[in-house]
Amino acid sequence: MSGTVGAVSSNGVYSFTKPNRESIRLLTGLGVEGDVHAGETVKHRSRVRQDPTQPNLRQVHLIHGELFDEVRMAGFEVAAGQLGENVTTRGIDLLGLSRGTRLHLGDEAVVEVTGLRNPCAQIDGFAKGLLKQVIERGEDGRPRFKAGIMGIVVTGGVVRPGDPVGIELPAGPHVPLGRV
């Protein structure tokens, strides 16, 4: 299983959306160089309020570009970076990956998957009704979050649109992704 990078995005200030870039540099143990969410400890405001010393398991946010196709069919126009992600992929079932999966982005960078993005009300601030599109109910009635995955940088490097994305599954049984 492999895919490609469709877009890369970053923002040095707190904002829901992130502008697309020609490239981003991932920094080992920190995240995206110059991005407001980079750091060893949590940077997301809600997490900082809870405990600013928590490790940052949300250094890199990835979304599958197929989500944009899906919400477009429901009447929403969403482009890469507009949901705050750093890396938009194509051709990978990100939500179906196991915790601990390593994504090889481009020639050098490696991101280890830590869990699911917890969709928040800011998504409806971007487009009213969109939050319902990125949270669906499973057959068991439990919510299924579709707003992407989070990870930590285990090997830094430059990532560009068009780069390949390789998938290295962890040893052992599949561990479904939970919210981080």
From TrEMBL:
Residues 18-168 form the MOSC domain. It comes from the Bacteria. PANTHER family: METAL-SULFUR CLUSTER BIOSYNTHESIS PROTEINS YUAD-RELATED (PTHR36930), MOSC DOMAIN-CONTAINING PROTEIN (PTHR36930:SF1). This is MOSC domain-containing protein. It comes from Streptomyces macrolidinus. The lineage of its organism: Bacteria, Bacillati, Actinomycetota, Actinomycetes, Kitasatosporales.
